[in-house]
Design a protein that fits this description.
Blueprint (H helix, E strand, L loop, with lengths): L1 H21 L4 H11 L8 H15 L6 H28 L5 H31 L3 H32 L4 H6 L1
Helix pairs in contact: 1-2, 3-4, 4-5
Length: 176
Amino acid sequence: MMFRRFLPAAAFVLLPAMAMAASPQPAQQQANATASLAHTPHDPAPEQVDAHITALHDELGITKKQEALWTPFAQTMRDNAQRLHDAIDSRREKLPGMNAVENMQSYAELTVERAHDMQTLNSSFAALYESFSKKQRAHADTLFRQGDAEHAEHRQQAADTTTATAPATAADAQAK
């Protein structure tokens, strides 16, 4: 089971090396190709974050009384998004000079930071959720479950795309 979880992560770490070996390029183009292939979380633009916040506000039916609890939750989303953006930028800048161990460590640090941000977001959401009516809670529960399903589907589509576009290995070539 652990192997199945590690395999996709290992593939993302190895993809840049496989891509560089497949086609000789000048050093700068090679570094850019490596940086673009390395596994890094999605980095939404500030306008996407604000659009998500607005849509969530409307979808949850936040009332005037709940605005005092909504505001810190929304600000936490913005702060988390900015922190993620800064961390991703830093990772992308350093990526061309990283070896595989440094790459994996960088991704692990990014994941830990993201987990901490989610804990902070959950804390601010818990207070807001407590203020919800039964109808709002039921809707939020459904909305968040659907969001998890959509994220899982998106991850699966990304994995399928990566698998379909991955270069053939020597064993694959011999099998043909």
